[in-house]
Amino acid sequence: MHHQDKTLPSGRTNHQPPERSGEHLAVAAAMAVAPVSVPRIKLGSQGLEVSAQGLGCMGMSAFYGPPKPEPDMIKLIHHAVTAGVTFLDTSDIYGPHTNEILLGKALQGGVREKVELATKFGISFADGKREIRGDPAYVRAACEGSLKRLGVDCVDLYYQHRIDNRVPIEVTMGELKKLVEEGKIKYIGLSEASASTIRRAHAVHPITAVQLEWSLWSRDAEEDIIPTCRELGIGIVAYSPLGRGFLSSGTKLVDSLTEQDFRKHMPRFQPENLDKNAQIFERVNAMAARKGCTPSQLALAWVHHQGNDVCPIPGTTKIENFNQNVGALSVKLSPDEMLELESYAAAGEVAGDRYPQMASTWKDSETPPLSSWKSE
């Protein structure tokens, strides 16, 4: 494939792959600070409009090592909103609760009016055991708790984080519909739901967005979930668009993980899978060098090029990484380049599942039929 040479800020042309050097970093830094105006997109067909890229807030408080200093995270959130990234994503399970409390502080002083706020319910941590719940009493209590912690009277987008396979989706949706009617939530979302559950839910009340893992190396949703969303006019929110950081820095990421980081337990980061997966990163990195962008920007640009109904929500805890992620919006990919990128992480090239076996119960196979439901 022919790549047109273009002169980069450093004066070299992009057909000369740089060594991993200060020169490459200088090019990356030059791109990272380039002002990019963040477009707005319609998410779903009910009227929600969000920034074309969102900000995943989980890693600020939970799961990816120890919580980060609160003042720094508030500063980062304010920086994002000022830059035009106004779609903020959290959940009551992040912490639990501490991420919503953090966002509540960041939203004070007139910031709330500038953002589209998304949170989630459905994973309960009680008495040290994790449980997935979608029963109406729990849905309502979870929503009230989130509103209080966030310090708001309404959430823009409220997702069921994981699907409760004991409760028909129609029952859960019935309660969410009431919360919409009461003005406590504006729009309803589902996360990690099967195509049939999405259809059944949407029949009760329109679903605005489905959140799912979608990146160069996580593409299983393309088979039937994404086509179902498009058929029904549902927006797609892509979490972990950078492969939980692996598509940003490769095996260096794994070396830097702390004991509290749950990525340490993920199959793709285990020694037996790492060498094979490192090759994916190396190929992405080489193509990024040719294009004069960073591997993160290239991987994110691939998600952006999936369509204007897709909003990736990369998470970060550093302003410079945030700036770099926004820079992905100006990276253009031809259809040939898209295919080349996809070939690097084709089926069979990626070693390891998305989640450890213990979390396989998180996958929604199907919720029981409505006729089986007996309310407590």
TrEMBL record:
Database matches in InterPro entries: Aldo-Keto_reductase (IPR050791), NAD(P)_OxRdtase_dom_sf (IPR036812), NADP_OxRdtase_dom (IPR023210)
GO molecular function: oxidoreductase activity
Residue ranges of every copy of the NADP-dependent oxidoreductase domain listed in the record: 57-343
Keyword Oxidoreductase part of the UniProt annotation: yes
Cellular component GO terms held in the UniProt record: cytoplasm
Residue span of region Disordered: 1-23
Entry superkingdom: Eukaryota
Keyword terms of this UniProt record: NADP, Oxidoreductase
Gene3D superfamilies: NADP-dependent oxidoreductase domain
One Pfam family linked to the record: Aldo_ket_red
PANTHER family the record matches: AFLATOXIN B1 ALDEHYDE REDUCTASE, ALDO-KETO REDUCTASE YAKC [NADP(+)]
Recorded family membership: Belongs to the aldo/keto reductase family.
Name assigned to this protein: NADP-dependent oxidoreductase domain-containing protein
Protein species of origin: Setaria italica
